Structures are given as C-alpha cells and as structure tokens.
Amino acid sequence: MDILQKALEYNESSLSPQELSKLYEYDIFTLGKVANKLRTKRYGKKVFFNNNRHINPSNICADVCKFCAFSASRKNPNPYAMSIDEILTQAHKAYENGAKELHIVSAHNPNYTYEWYFELFREIKKALPQVHLKALTAAEVDYIDRISNKGYKKVLEDMVEAGVDSMPGGGAEIFDESVRSYICKGKVSSKRWLEIHAYWHGLGKMSNATMLFGHIEKREHRIDHMLRLREIQSEDSKVASKNGGFNAFIPLLYQKENNFLNIKDFPSGQEILKTIAIARILLHNIPHIKAYWATLGLNMAIVAQEFGANDMDGTIQLESIQSAAGAKSKGGLSKDELISQIKDAGFVAIERDSIYNELAEY
Ligand code: V47
C-alpha cells in the first residue's frame, strides 16, 4: 500500500514523520485532488472569512525570536506601547468599521503587569460585549505566567473569567526542539505550548494552531508539528465533558525581510500547496485549514482553497506582524475584495463568526 493510502487510514501512531514526509514526493495534482475531495465533502464550495481586526498593544519584547521583524528591539527602531484607553479607542473604531472579532496579541512587554492584561480584557468586554475577543497566544500566556508566577492554568482561568472567548494560534512556530531552539530560543517550549492549549480546551474553549514554515525547517519537521497537534486534539476528544478544541490550523509562510534568520531559499508555490494539502490530509480531526492571505498573498490563498484549505482569515483592518517582515498586508482587505476574489474563483463566500457559525452567504 502506498504512503498516501496509509496516511488516509489515520492509524494514529503507525507512521513516523520521516515516513509521512514522503507525501511531498507526490505531485501537487495527486495531493490536491485528495485534499480537495476531503474539504469538499465537508464544505462543498464554501470558503469562509470573517470581519476582524488585529490589535497589537506593544512591540517591546523581552523575547528574541530570529524570524520576528515586529519586535522593536530588533531591526524596527520604533518602540510603542499602547494604554488601555488607546486600545479601547481602536476597538471602538474597529467595531464601527464592522469588526465582529478583536484579535489581540502583543510582544512580551515587561512593563505590562498581570493586572493590566485582565483589566484590558474586562474593559473591552464591558464596552463591546457583542464582539468576540480572541486574545493571548500560548507564548504570551507562558510569558505572563513567568512574570507573575501564577501558573499557566491560573492565567487561563483568569482569561475565561475576564471574558476572553478564544485563543489565537500564534507562538507555535515549529515544535521540533532543535529548530525551535535556533529560531526562538527562550520562548515557550513546544511541550508547554501544547499543554496550554490542552488546558484551555479543557475549560471548554476553542483555539487555533499555527505553524511557521519556509525557513530552516525540513519537511519532516512540518509533519511532526502537525502530528503533535493531531494527537492533542484526539486526546481532547477522549474527555467527554469537554467542548473545546482546535478550530483551525494555520500554516504561516515565513516572510523574509527585516529579521535575523537570513534565509535565502524560499519554498516554491508547489511546496506551499503541498503543505496545505498534507495538512488537510493529516489533520482529519481539526475542522478548518486556514490559508492566511496575509502571508500567502491573496492569489495563493485563493488557489489553496482547491488544495484543502477552506478559510482565508478575514479583513484584519491593520496587520503589523507579517507586514513588518515584508508581507503586503498592512492595510487589511475590504470585505468586498475578499468576497469578489472568492466568487471569481468559483466558490461561495461565507462570512463566519470566530467559531465558524455561518453569518451570511455571498
Ligand atoms: O506566532 C512572526 C508569526 C505569528 C513572522 O489564530 C511571522 O487565527 C511570517 O499567530 N513571517 C503571529 N510569520 C500571528 C498569528 C496568527 C495570524 C493570523 C491568524 C491567527 C489565528 C494567528 O506570526 C507568530 C509567528 O509565527 N510571524 N514573524 C515572519 N517573519
């Protein structure tokens, strides 16, 4: 039996990342056809997007990730730290512009206290209770735990109490420990990143999971990353009382400018599409695969919808992390632009909320 057939049997522990990395040896049409069949079975011609706003309270960071161009202590000479009032002003504007989700993640600013974060979330929820609050990556949760000594479980419980609705998927990077220690030494460990999400899911909450690819990692590291996520998700589903889990897997294509990784060889379009198709094939228990237009570019993100992806992310309004590294995403996208691209590609555009309830069809 060939490796693709075996991969589709989902005999959880039978194939190693090395064996599964042979999936990349199939051509894109073979992988794409299988991945497209899987996504079509679940979603037909639907492509999902949401109306969201990213807010990044500060770019002053205690951690040093080689791939990051956003952090002020690196090649970006403009440090900033927003106050709660400034963030609230942005949140109100975002809401007036149609955002139904606020995605709030920050650099690890040592001047923000434990209380600051939770006051921020409470104030936002008080002012805009109808807006979905997606906030704090597992890397931030780990950082807040380290500065406060509260323990990550308490941080997560306090997030629920303060009104955080879901967690974004950032900070996952690549779980392989050797790659991780080269690209982001000192940041949350892979083990802890996974423990944090598992505990959050146990609180009945949803989250996403990213993977930063296209830098020094090898194919088998990407597969290993996906398998670790698949395992956590299936562990989660064993506990009957839980309603939480991973909503979406988001492969983030590494952007090369203004950072310290100094990568010369970038993945081809084929390698990117194969990665997305393989994610759909392997991650049978994570419902949504997001082709994040901010890193892939709009064209590639739309093409990826025929290679297993079923989501584009959203309007964003202001994107500061990937655009600092060269992505053309700073100003976000209008809802009309997203809808027109999705329709032009022959799909049905579905505006969703943050946990994938369908709000409107275009
Ligand atoms: O974890 C940093 C990445 C992430 C670069 O959960 C870079 O819905 C590419 O996690 N090139 C933060 N990527 C963004 C993130 C995210 C984005 C969209 C949706 C969701 C979601 C989550 O940005 C970090 C890091 O992996 N990043 N630098 C770079 N040079």
From TrEMBL:
Q: Which residues bind S-adenosyl-L-methionine?
A: 67, 173
Molecular function (GO) terms for this protein are: 4 iron, 4 sulfur cluster binding; 7,8-didemethyl-8-hydroxy-5-deazariboflavin synthase activity; aminodeoxyfutalosine synthase activity; iron ion binding
Q: Which Pfam families match?
A: CofH_C, Radical_SAM
Q: Which domain of life is it from?
A: Bacteria
Q: Which GO terms describe its biological process?
A: menaquinone biosynthetic process
Q: How is the cofactor bound?
A: Binds 1 [4Fe-4S] cluster. The cluster is coordinated with 3 cysteines and an exchangeable S-adenosyl-L-methionine.
UniProt cross-references to CDD domains, sorted A to Z: Radical_SAM
Tagged with keyword Transferase: yes
Catalyzed reaction equations: 3-[(1-carboxyvinyl)-oxy]benzoate + S-adenosyl-L-methionine + H2O = 6-amino-6-deoxyfutalosine + hydrogencarbonate + L-methionine + H(+)
**Gene3D superfamilies tied to this protein:** Aldolase class I
**What EC numbers are recorded for this enzyme?**
2.5.1.120
Q: Which residues bind [4Fe-4S] cluster?
A: 61, 65, 68
The cofactors it requires, by name, are: [4Fe-4S] cluster
UniProt-listed InterPro entries: Aldolase_TIM, CofH/MnqC-like_C, F420, FO_synthase_su2, MqnE, rSAM, rSAM_sf
Domain Radical SAM core stretches: 47-287
* UniProt keyword list: 4Fe-4S, Iron, Iron-sulfur, Menaquinone biosynthesis, Metal-binding, S-adenosyl-L-methionine, Transferase
Please indicate if the UniProt record lists Disulfide bond as a keyword: no
Q: What class of enzyme is it?
A: transferase
Q: According to its UniProt record, in which pathway does this protein act? A: Quinol/quinone metabolism; menaquinone biosynthesis
Q: Any idea what job this protein has?
A: Radical SAM enzyme that catalyzes the addition of the adenosyl radical to the double bond of 3-[(1-carboxyvinyl)oxy]benzoate, leading to aminodeoxyfutalosine (AFL), a key intermediate in the formation of menaquinone (MK, vitamin K2) from chorismate.
UniProt record similarity statement:
Belongs to the radical SAM superfamily. MqnE family.
The molecule here is called Aminodeoxyfutalosine synthase
Native organism taxonomy: Bacteria, Pseudomonadati, Campylobacterota, Epsilonproteobacteria, Campylobacterales
Gene name, Swiss-Prot/TrEMBL: mqnE
